[in-house]
Fold:
Amino acid sequence: MTLKRILSIIVIFVVLYGTTITVSAEENSIDSIGINEKQFIHQPPELPAKYGVKLVNTLQTSKLIEASASRSADEIHLYTGINFVSTPKTLSSGNRTVLEVFGGFDLNYILTWDDTQQIWVQLTAYDDVIPLDGLVISSNAEQYVPLEFDNNPFTPPPTKDLSEQWNLIGFSDIYPATARDTLYCVYDEWSEAIGFDAVNQTYETSIINGGSGIHSDEREMYPTKGYWLWMDDPGTLVGLSS
Structure:
């Protein structure tokens, strides 16, 4: 049963029985909206076994798990291990392929997610690094990858078609924004967003559409980060900037 279906049942109950229900994401059971003492509702996909890594420590906790918000928008800060990253703007010509951006850095692999088939895809050296596409990078060291943006004022904001179930997205602006604002164009379709804490190699506490407390959609999303996004229905995500 999807989150929106759960919420609609709650609304019907309130209308029929005149009962006031306060939904708090960290205090109620999954039967309402709260994911009591859990980080997320939907289990994120695991990395393919051939990469030999267990992706995260899936803690059961009611404490907020979130990486530090301090980050520069014009460089990707890679930590040793798994990183969920993205470019916040369109990259300049000559500085946008995987080879041009990440060549020379000590990496094991760069993956993205095929949301249509719900499978992992390994990027090649000549694939472009595109705004709104989330990437998973395995790094052998802490490294800083500089980004060079396209400064053409007529470059339109990027768009990304999203499928039902899991999508791996990037945040597309140089300034943080709340999840509610970032995902406003798919407000009726998305239900859960999950970031990754590369420092501690664990998923962050999920952000729930309409959630409250530690799962509130007023929590911010950040430049150069990648996020899992669960869609109850297909939609089109539009970037906040070009």
In short: Residues 195 and 227 are 5 Å apart (CA to CA). Residues 49-238 form one domain. The first strand starts at residue 75 and ends at 78.
